[in-house]
């Protein structure tokens, strides 16, 4: 009987994996298909012929090399700034006794409830008024911290036993060294999970770069791909899929590297003691 | 440093982070600037002027040609012309409005023809100086850029609603020739034969991206009025309702595929599942590339009720001068003239996009080229008069278009045409009267 359950479990998992991966497979299939085969042989899993030029076309016409560079610099800068601001903020909210902490936490949670689109225009006006429109800092600065990051890391840090904090203080560690030597290593799964979230979000963000980055030299990967999805002329699906495959690759690699930590962070795995 | 001080520092950092995380809003004011009438260009010094142009990527080739040509005449003039990475006219308008809101007003912009009324009502653009246009420019298309008798927009890359027909599917069903489909009844009859042959619905008139344009084309193509002179909805007449009832007629006969999204509808046509697709001439080039030699197909005029032939609304885009400086407005008009030169128009309408050429010389050159397939020939030789797209007050444009979209989607799902259209007309009239 146990074998039947195991088989059923694997069957369900395999099915879920197949369903999840199929769109990704279809993107790759479209990416290697000639334009006139994208909509034909609709249920054929393997194209009858391969057109690898879609990749070179996507790379050159949409200047994907430049876009990936800009996207990487922007995403990593945002991540670095968010970690610098969110980790101490989360630490204070989780482990430091101070007046007004409850109010600060309520504001963080309140910020989580505000849709990003609401603050988009005020931030746009603010960034323009300080002359940072159409610049890399203009892409990065509005996201230098994250209410979601503060909350996620605060929850992770709450799970760290207070006795460890007391022990650190007994050993003469101040807040900074406690944060660096005790809290950060123990909150690493949460930090990794947030990092993956942050990178995915800003790598794929379309709306903010669309508003603030006007020069083609500043186009992020999603903006660069807009070249192949012109509503007025129809989509160039082959090049679009090839471009999507290229810009998806770095985040997939990142996810594979951070997979274990990410799962730990999201599942609230026990803090190693 | 004491632990209290550190707590304070970290607390301050936390509070700062929270404020920066999106709760703070800038109170910068948006100043209104009036548009200038163009000066005599001979009185302006190019070295002292920089013109800024915002446009969609579909004009890249034409812009490169136009900028190079204008700078031959005015080598000292600086032209900042870079397209934002937008994928449709709504996004383009959003970015331009956002720029204007923060004081970065472009001198010359591209806009979708459906948004002309919005620009005219909201930003009072400078009228186009038609005298700078070449004699080969097809002035009949300026009507699509005219509001209340004034030309505010120089039509550039334009398109018309069209019926795309899979001739092989017609042949297989013994349903006649694509060119013989002239009325909506002809379309239904042909679709019935094709669907009987395939056992599947065969027509797609998508209702997501361009529903107000398609419905305006159906109404005007049948000789009826879409927008009354007073800005109210004019499509409540019996004949207009009959034209719009094509959706429920097809649905109730199980002839409509029920595809809402434009790109999905194109995919159904290219894939051979939809034998009939109502779409735009500007996509003929893309569709041709997708179909290749898979089957024989033809664009034909949009069918109408009876044999009426009214002017269809123009799709596509054109140029509007928004400059608040007289000299920059003059140079913007000069750039428009270059954008509408035969060379630039040929590039703008060419094989990448299949827009209707707005210049006779460019049209002749395209038709004489090796690229002139019978499908592209339809787009490149289109010579019928076109009207402005929409026409409702600019402040109501988006709300009215949303109302029309809702109407078309109800009709597409088989709702009663008379009831649905009358309800929509009432709703639109209420919107425009507020």
Output the CATH topology of the largest domain in chain A.
MetI-like fold
Q: What about the largest sheet of chain A?
A: 2 strands, antiparallel
Order of helices and strands of chain A: HHHHHHHHHHHHEEH
* Strand order in the largest sheet of chain B: 2-1-3-12-6
SSE run of chain B: HEHEHEHEEEEHHEHHHHEHEEEHHHHEHH
Describe what this molecule looks like in 3D.
The complex is a heterodimer of chains A (273) and B (434). Chain A contains 13 helices and two strands; from the N terminus they run ααααααααααααββα. With 273 residues, chain A is mostly helical. Chain A folds into two domains: 1-51, no CATH class; 62-267, MetI-like (MetI-like fold, Orthogonal Bundle). In chain A, strands 1-2 form a two-stranded antiparallel ribbon. Chain A is globular, with a radius of gyration of 23 Å. The relative contact order of chain A is 0.15. The model of chain A has no long low-confidence stretch (mean pLDDT 88). Chain B is of the alpha/beta class. Chain B has two domains: 41-158 and 315-387, Periplasmic binding protein-like II (D-Maltodextrin-Binding Protein, domain 2, 3-Layer(aba) Sandwich), CATH 3.40.190.10; 161-313 and 392-433, D-Maltodextrin-Binding Protein, domain 2 (3-Layer(aba) Sandwich), CATH 3.40.190. Chain B has helices at 3-23, 60-73, 89-101, 116-123, 167-172, 184-198, 211-221, 238-244, 246-252, 262-270, 284-291, 326-339, 342-349, 360-368, 374-380, 397-412, 417-433; strands at 50-54, 78-81, 108-112, 146-147, 150-151, 154-159, 161-166, 203-204, 276-280, 297-301, 312-313, 315-321, 386-387. In chain B, helix 2 crosses helix 12 (326-339) and helix 2 (60-73) runs antiparallel to helix 13 (342-349). The longest helix of chain B is centred in the N-terminal third of the chain and has 21 residues, at 3-23. Classes of the chains: A mainly alpha (273), B alpha/beta (434). Chains A and B meet through helix 3, helix 4, helix 5, helix 11 and strand 1 of A and helix 1, helix 3, helix 10, helix 11 and strand 12 of B.
